[in-house]
């Protein structure tokens, strides 16, 4: 069958006449990126946003402002049609030193505690623990793929954060540490929940959680926590941006529906996940992106997808 006949039959099967004519949107026009105190946003390539943790003098330790701004930032990027993929990195010497211990102390040891322990516990859960969890989970829930580029130290809350990302890359100087037990905490904003599913070796995860020993980039790649290691930070960022740009060149419908379904499949049976996928695709296969992508493949041209 000729390329033209394949395209013509695809078009008839999938598109009502009203959407067969492609309505290219205003690609190229850019919105100003939001500004934050603890995060610095830039756009190194079209449709790619780099979010940099930006308290280098504190090794990007995570304070209350950071936790709040992460939620605001990822909600904004989730809606931003100029953003199709995200690179998350850390400014300065290290990716992150985890929880800002000075800042957290003011919440953990506050003198404003209520006398009733039940009410105190309830408020603590609602106003501290749950929002902190949300500020990590918002990365996983964001429909745009997030590539994290880790260098230097990645400690405590840093592991919570990277395990919520889609793709993890690091530089060879990186060390990782699930440090919570050393400060009398159980890691409670994602590491215990997500890391076993990523690493797949319960024995190793438990060793790292219970001992808080540091592990290297070599060990991280061997345990499949990261997929690639680069010689230094510049090479790491360059590779992360290149990968993000490649993702951003694909159909945003296909990429985002893939992320949603990969997340769903991780937590459900194969049967449930296939059912979920079919329900998504009964709508998404009607997207103009399918025709454009197939056309591009057959005609050996790079398709341009309109904004989502
Ligand atoms: C609901 C709870 C939610 C989340 C819970 C998460 C739990 C955790 O994250 S546990 C882990 C807590 N983090 C740490 O214990 C790490 C402590 N820091 C370090 O080990 C080191 O700083 C380093 C990350 C290995 C980096 O070393 P280096 O490059 O030599 O820098 P330093 O000179 O040590 O630090 C520079 C500067 O930053 C301050 N700082 C570092 N980490 C933190 C931190 N976690 N909180 C607050 N401040 C931090 C450090 O004190 C230095 O400040 P100066 O004023 O310049 O001395």
TrEMBL record:
Superkingdom of the organism of origin: Eukaryota
Alphabetical UniProt keywords: Acetylation, Fatty acid metabolism, Isomerase, Lipid metabolism, Peroxisome
Catalytic reaction(s) noted: (3E,5Z,8Z,11Z,14Z)-eicosapentaenoyl-CoA = (2E,4E,8Z,11Z,14Z)-eicosapentaenoyl-CoA; (3E,5Z)-octadienoyl-CoA = (2E,4E)-octadienoyl-CoA
Keyword Heme: no
The keyword Heme belongs to this UniProt entry's keyword annotation: no
Function recorded in the entry: Isomerization of 3-trans,5-cis-dienoyl-CoA to 2-trans,4-trans-dienoyl-CoA.
PANTHER family referenced in this protein's UniProt entry, alphabetically: DELTA(3,5)-DELTA(2,4)-DIENOYL-COA ISOMERASE, MITOCHONDRIAL, ENOYL-COA HYDRATASE
Family to which the UniProt record says this protein belongs: Belongs to the enoyl-CoA hydratase/isomerase family.
Name listed for the protein in its UniProt record: Delta(3,5)-Delta(2,4)-dienoyl-CoA isomerase, mitochondrial
């Amino acid at each position: 069958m000729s390329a033209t006949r394949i395209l013509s039959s695809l078009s008839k099967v999938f598109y009502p006449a009203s959407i067969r004519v492609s309505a290219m949107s205003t690609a190229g026009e850019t919105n100003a990126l939001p500004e934050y105190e603890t995060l610095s946003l830039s756009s190194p390539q079209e449709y790619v946003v780099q979010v940099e943790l930006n308290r280098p003098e504190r090794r990007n330790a995570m304070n209350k402002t950071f936790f709040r701004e992460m939620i605001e930032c990822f909600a904004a990027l989730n809606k931003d049609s100029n953003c199709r993929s995200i690179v998350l990195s850390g400014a300065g010497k290290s990716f992150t030193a985890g929880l800002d211990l000075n800042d957290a102390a003011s919440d953990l040891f506050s003198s404003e505690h209520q006398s009733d322990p039940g009410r105190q516990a309830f408020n603590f859960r609602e106003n501290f623990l749950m929002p902190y969890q949300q500020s990590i989970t918002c990365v996983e829930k964001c429909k745009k793929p997030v590539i994290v580029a880790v260098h230097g130290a990645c400690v405590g809350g840093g592991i919570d954060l990277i395990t919520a990302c889609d793709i993890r890359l690091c530089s060879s100087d990186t060390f990782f540490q699930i440090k919570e037990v050393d400060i009398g905490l159980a890691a409670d904003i994602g590491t215990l929940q997500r890391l076993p599913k990523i690493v797949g070796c319960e024995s190793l995860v438990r060793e790292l959680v219970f001992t808080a020993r540091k592990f290297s980039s070599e060990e991280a790649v061997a345990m499949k926590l990261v997929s690639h290691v680069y010689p230094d930070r510049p090479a790491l960022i360059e590779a992360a941006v290149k990968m993000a740009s490649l993702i951003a060149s694909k159909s945003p419908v296909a990429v985002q529906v893939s992320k949603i379904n990969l997340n769903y499949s991780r937590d459900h049976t194969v049967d449930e996940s296939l059912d979920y996928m079919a329900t998504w695709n009964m709508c998404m296969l009607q997207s103009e992106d399918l025709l454009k992508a197939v056309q591009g493949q057959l005609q050996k041209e790079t398709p341009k997808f309109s904004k989502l």
